[in-house]
Design goal:
This protein is 32% helix and 16% strand. The protein is of the alpha/beta class. The protein has a single domain, classed as Alkaline Phosphatase, subunit A. Strands 1, 4, 5, 6, 7, 8, 11, 12 and 15 form a 9-stranded mixed beta sheet that branches. The protein starts with 11 loop residues before the first helix and ends in a 15-residue tail after the last strand.
Length: 467
């Protein structure tokens, strides 16, 4: 197995530049990397609690105070003015307090309060850990999405999945290490799963887009009807031989290496990817568990089942995005209708994913994370909507060594600001990497004369959430 790629460790590009073997060492290094990947990928910094991540992203910003962070005073004071100052920077003006339209109830041995929006997910609260005090700085969708996915809302930076891939490599050489299912092309688009300055093999592989149904989330061109695998192998070998002279120019090596790696991975994926995408092998009971074949759960159910199938085959980071071109979770008006529509689409599939992972013994070493880019205000926008709120919202995790039925942090009595045990986005990233056995301060990459990391110059691991 190969060590994790750190700031002072030798990279393949450095090795190629300084080695007397030159480009010829590329084949050997590729074979060695493949052996390491087959044995479990690169070594983490310390014993990991999780081997992979499934990130369930709710685009638009679900309301924490209407889902997993009950605020009785908000219900009591419905229609009254907020008794403290609103943020200096707001996305749009809001008025008085708006009580939640939904009732909350106790679930599980932990007695966790969950709203009636999520009756299926609520059955799994004893496996879930709630961070109620997450906060960011950007009240706009574009900046908030980039902050959540890359740690920066102002610069192009590598995404979470890219950093995880860079640090740990892959457990399956025949599949990408980072897959994003039905990602949105809005509000940062490809930057939210991009590699930026990290090696090209760290970039996420998209399946479909958010504006199309999940049935269209298929990897294209995985079959070759004209050439046999042997003929394709001969073509790739010839291509490598033809590029040896080209690769003697140091300026071309990095780009060439990335391109050759992409060709090799595409060749290997021809057999692996169709198997992952073929849901016909799943039992009728499993399909029903995810709500596949039913409305309105079929679409996100397919995403969640694909996420499980990628996870059990060694993909390191899988993202499933719930979004559409109209409503999303962005209810500036018609909060009740919009959130109920969205919750009906995702509640049963998410619960099915958690149940399926647990039944297969995968939840213990799979970290499932649920989040939007921010929450929503306790004050009303118009008559029946809520505005963007990055100042205090809930993210939950399950599996991957976190404490089930545990609650960390608090927002104020009305759910506007993170108030106790605050968790900044950088802290969230540091904690996610920690679950995978990665030290966020050591997982760095030197670029343009500076050592970069996912958490920039901040970030504290929330140790208390781990069992």
């Amino acid at each position: 197995m190969s060590p994790p790629r750190l700031v002072n460790s030798i990279t393949r590009r450095t090795m190629l530049r300084g080695s007397a073997l030159g480009f010829g060492a590329l084949a050997a290094s590729s074979l060695l990397a493949a052996e390491g990947d087959a044995a479990g990928g690169a070594l983490p910094h310390f014993a990991p609690r999780s081997r992979r991540v499934i990130f369930l992203f709710m685009k638009g910003g679900p309301s924490s105070i209407d889902t997993f962070d009950e605020k009785p005073l908000l219900t009591r004071d419905d229609g009254k003015p907020l008794p403290f100052d609103k943020p200096r920077v707001q996305f749009a003006p809001t008025g008085n307090l708006l009580g939640s339209p939904w009732k909350f109830a106790n679930y599980g041995k932990s007695g966790t309060r969950v709203s009636e929006l999520f009756p299926h997910v609520a059955r799994h609260v004893d496996d879930m850990c709630f961070l109620h005090s997450v906060h960011g700085t950007n009240a706009a969708h574009g900046g908030a999405l980039l902050k959540l996915h890359t740690g920066s809302d102002t610069f192009v930076r590598p995404s979470m999945g890219a950093w995880v891939t860079y640090g740990l490599g892959t457990e399956n050489a025949n599949l990408p290490a980072f897959v994003t299912i039905c990602p949105t092309l809005a509000h940062g688009g490809v930057k939210n799963w991009g590699n930026a300055f990290l090696p090209a093999d760290c970039q996420g592989t998209p399946l479909g887009v958010a504006s199309q149904p999940a049935t269209a989330a298929q990897m294209k061109f995985t079959g070759n009807g004209r050439l046999s695998p042997g003929a394709q192998r001969s073509q790739l070998d010839l291509l490598a031989a033809m590029n040896r002279d080209y690769a003697r120019d140091a300026a071309n090596r990095g780009e060439l290496e990335a391109r050759l790696e992409s060709f090799e991975l595409a060749f290997r994926m021809q057999s692996a990817m169709p198997q992952v995408q073929d849901l016909s092998a799943e039992s009728p009971e499993t399909l029903r568990l995810y709500g596949i074949g039913e409305q309105p759960t079929d679409d996100f159910g397919r995403q969640c089942l694909l996420a499980r199938r990628f996870a059990e085959r060694g993909v390191r980071f899988i993202q499933a995005t719930h979004s559409d071109t109209n409503v999303q979770w962005d209810q500036h008006s018609n909060l009740k209708e919009g959130h109920e529509k969205n919750a009906r689409e995702v509640d049963k599939p998410i619960a099915g994913l958690l149940a399926d992972l647990k039944a297969r013994g995968l939840l213990d070493d799979t970290l499932v994370m649920w989040s939007g880019e921010f929450g929503r205000t306790p004050t009303a926008q118009g008559k029946n909507g809520r505005d963007h709120n990055p100042y205090g919202f809930t993210v939950w995790m399950a599996g991957g060594g976190v404490r089930g039925g545990f609650h960390y942090g608090k927002t104020d009595d009305y759910g506007f600001y993170a108030a106790e045990d605050k968790v900044h986005i950088h802290d969230l990233h540091a904690t996610l990497l920690y679950a995978l056995g990665l030290d966020h301060e050591r997982l760095t990459f030197r670029y343009s004369g500076r050592d970069f990391r996912l958490t920039d110059i901040r970030g504290q691991v929330v140790q208390e959430i781990f069992s």
